[in-house]
Automatic annotation (TrEMBL):
Residues annotated as signal peptide: 1-25
Domain of life: Eukaryota
Keywords recorded for this protein, A-Z: Membrane, Signal, Transmembrane, Transmembrane helix, Transport
GO biological process: fatty acid beta-oxidation; long-chain fatty acid import into peroxisome; peroxisome organization; very long-chain fatty acid catabolic process
Originating species: Zooxanthella nutricula
Phylogenetic placement of the source organism: Eukaryota, Sar, Alveolata, Dinophyceae, Peridiniales
Name assigned to this protein: ABC transmembrane type-1 domain-containing protein
InterPro entries, per the entry: ABC1_TM_dom (IPR011527), ABC_transporter_sub-D (IPR050835)
Amino acid sequence: AASGGRGLFSHLLLIVAASFGSMRCARLKAQTSRQSVLYQSLGQAGPWFRTLRTMCWCTFGLAVASNAVQYLQKSIERTWRRNLTHRLHEAYFRRHNYYRIAQGADSGSDGSTAAILDADVRIAEDVPRLCASISALVTSLVAGGFQAIVFSRALCHMGRRGALAAAFVQAYCWATYAVGNNLLPEDIADKSRRTAASRSLLRRALCRAEVHCQAISALQGGAVELDDLSR
C-alpha cells in the first residue's frame, strides 16, 4: 500500500511537471507567433525563419507533454485496474466457484450470502470503466488545478482587474460544484448497480439459450425461454 501511494504521488508529480512544461511551451509559442508576424511585416526573412523553427520546437514540446499526461493517466488506470481486479477475485472466488456465486450459495462464515448476480459485469466491465473514469478525473483535477493556480497568479499580477477576473473564475467553479452536488441529486450508484445486474441476467439467459438451443427446439421450449427473457 505504501509503495502504491508513493507510485501514485510520483505519477501526480510527473503530471504537474508535464503540465508546467506544456504551459511554458504554449506561452513561448504565443510570444514567438507575435514576433513572427512582426518580422514578416518588416520583411526580415532570417528572424522570421528562426521564429518558425522555434514554433516547431514548441509544437513538438506540446505534443510530448500531452502524450506524457495521457501515458501517466493510463499507467494510473492500469495499476488501479490490476489491484481492484485482484481484490475482487480474492473476495469472490476465495471459497466459491463462479456457479455458486451466480446461482446463490449458502451463507458464508460471516453470515453474508455468496450470491452475486453481476460478478462478470463487475470484473469485466465495471472495473475498467470505473478505473478509467477515476484516473481521468484525478488527472484532470491535478493538471487543471495546477494550471488554474498558475493562471490565477498571473492574473493577480495584472492589477485589480486581473485579481477580480481570477476571483470570478474561482467563484464560478465552486458555484458549479455546489449546484451539481446539492441542487441536482442523482443516485448514480444505485442506477448503475441495477443496470449492471439486469445486463448480467440478460447475458446469462442468452448464453443459456445459445448453449441449449437444440434441446429447447426439440422440446418446444421457445415460449418458456422467451417468457423468461421478457421478465
